[in-house]
Design goal:
mainly beta; 4-stranded antiparallel beta sheet; 8 strands; 39% strand
């Protein structure tokens, strides 16, 4: 008697598996206010151009980007990014 075969109950792994601390990036250009709330919650940021940038931390307080180094990852939760006539920030999401 032949052994019956059943469909597999196991799924194969997806081709791409999400890894790393941050998995999505939002670029915030000059003359923009970005609210990092809900699905856009910011878990960190990188400042590309520091001029006219203010970062509002998720737990309160503000940081002027002029006090930060360019092209450095800051693992600080972001509530809002306000940029004047110049400046670029990349908000990192989980």
């Amino acid at each position: 008697m032949a052994t019956p075969t059943y469909p597999s109950t196991h799924r194969s792994q997806p081709a791409y598996k999400s890894t790393g601390d941050y998995n999505r990036i939002t670029k915030v250009d000059s003359s923009t206010t970005f609210h990092a709330t809900g699905s856009n919650a910011g878990a960190g940021f990188i400042v590309e151009v520091v001029t006219n940038v203010v970062i509002h931390a998720a737990g309160g307080g503000t940081l002027p980007a002029s006090a930060m180094l360019v092209d450095t990852v800051y693992p600080i939760g972001v509530k809002k990014v306000v940029i004047g006539s110049s400046g670029i920030v990349h908000v990192l999401h989980r």
